[in-house]
Amino acid sequence: MSGPATPAGFPRVVVVGPAHPAKGGTAVHTTELARHLSADAEVKLVSWARQYPALLYPGEPGVPGGVPEVAEFTPTVRPLAWDSPASWVRTGRRVAAADLVVLTHVVPLQVPALLGVLAGLRSARSAARTVVVAHNVLPHEPRPGDALLVRRLLTSVDGVVVHSQEQAALAHAHGARRVVVADLPPHLPGGPRIDAPAGSRVPRDGGVRLLSLGVVRDYKGVDLLLEALREVHQRGFDARLTVAGELWGEAGRRVRELAGAPGLRGHVELREGYVPAAELPALLAAHDALVLPYRSATASQNAVLAFAHGLPVVATRVGTFPAQVRDGVDGVLVEPGDVAALAAGVLRLADGGLERLREGVQPPDLEEPWDRYLGALEEAARGGTAAAPPGGRLLAVAKRGAEHALWARVGVQRRVGEQLGARRLAAAPERRPVPSGVPRTGVLHDAAEVADAVAQARRLRLPAHPDAPKNWDALGAVAAVLTLADDGSRRARVLDAGSARYSPVLPWLRLYGFGAERGALAGINLEFGATVHRDGVEFRRGDVTDTGLPDASLDAVTCMSVIEHGVPVAAFLAETARILRPGGVLALSTDYDQDPPDTTGVTAYGAPVRIFSPADLRDLVATAAALGLELVGELTDEVLAHPERPVHWTRTGLDYTFVLLTFVRR
Description:
The protein is an alpha/beta fold.
């Protein structure tokens, strides 16, 4: 095993979630999570005596026969009941001595109970860090009020762990302060693979035997698979299907109807009811491939389960399947919601395709993914946000206060300036002098240049950044936009990539008269939640490597001290080149040193700290040039030299400087 065995600094951990006798993957995951955490911590699993009201759960809540799907974890207690609020708060008080409390979120119905546990922790003055493991941020079939409950939960904890980027976006949109994406680690029920060749129990006619496994619900698309199977038969390929699982509601009725329809009758076996873990190895061994025809998905371990038993997988490109299934190697990937595509995917098993895919199936690693998962859990527990650096809740409150004060000043100052300019009592915003003294491409040399930048910001009546060196590159970026991207109309569309709502570039551009058109000035950051507007400037959640913006839609992109925090530089440059119009400008600053200090083991915002060297910068410029971004200026040894290290990062103890690079799109 490699990586952290358990989250460091949390010797006492409580995991709250479903466990035996509850059935299903979430109960198994919760149990295995507690077991892996217990390698180096004192762990208690707190579960449910009664999870759901019977009227709202159409199936049997417990495993058939009461046989555990995996070995039970000790100690496990079951004090929680959906209909007993007193049990929720009492549980929180009883676990208040823990260092870390992990709350498993499955459905909004259970959110009030989890909030009750958190209320109990607060009433007992607990110092525990709190993390939600969200298997589904929102249910596949949401109901009124679900979003409100989920927002309340996610805003009440230090961090959230999700299992896909799509779920991360949803968590951010519902107010989560810290979201960490981690692959769902394997937690496979049942025993080992049966050593008989897969398909050995297929009828003698040699037809390929397909398996659909799990509860039948609309989002899982089993009805689409049945329709595709009819097309497959019309093409002369003999494929048989077993649907093994509970058939719920209208989706189950539809599957029964299709299975008995002409053209499928006799080719589909409905094995209704929950499949106990002990029966899984034999069931999988009796089939040739597992099919996952989902319309939508979050995270699933069914593909990993199939691989563990030697079966290839036919799956749609949703949720975690594209990351788990290697198309053409150990499975087939098709587009979701498309019967013809699904039929074509099954037909790829013909003419030796099944045998080739089976040869490509590798048994999954069952341990290392857990090491990574526990590391992600620790990262979430530490809290913090890339838009407001970690430092505790007081620092976060202080930064929010600074943000509101900054934008209040900008709004008042802008409106007063416009009124005075209209009356010719003062220069109009567009006539404000352009910042000077910072080269389009260059290095911050010394403390004197820092002082000059602060003084110039004040002379220009621009709200100075409290971190003095950041005024230097902000002045240079604003000057680049004014002189290279704007035609004097102040209509340029500018994106601040990796923005923070308290950083200076966008408010300064607003004071120069940009942003009159809503959305013309925008900032994106993966740590932002819901979209907010500050004096006409839009701040929204967004990925600097995948903005979703149209080609050639921007006049300028600024990116201040962002790429050193784990950003894939080539992907960022490629995306920037795509969204900039010809002649558009990129103003990019980052941490730099002509002889970088050793940053081994130093992390920030969940990524290793990086200080760029001269060679790193030249590689960056070469990559940019290949993408159509031409550097303004040169990176000579003289340009890259600096007599002092005027930037000090207290949190890491590092001293270095800044570099500003300006590019023009060809």
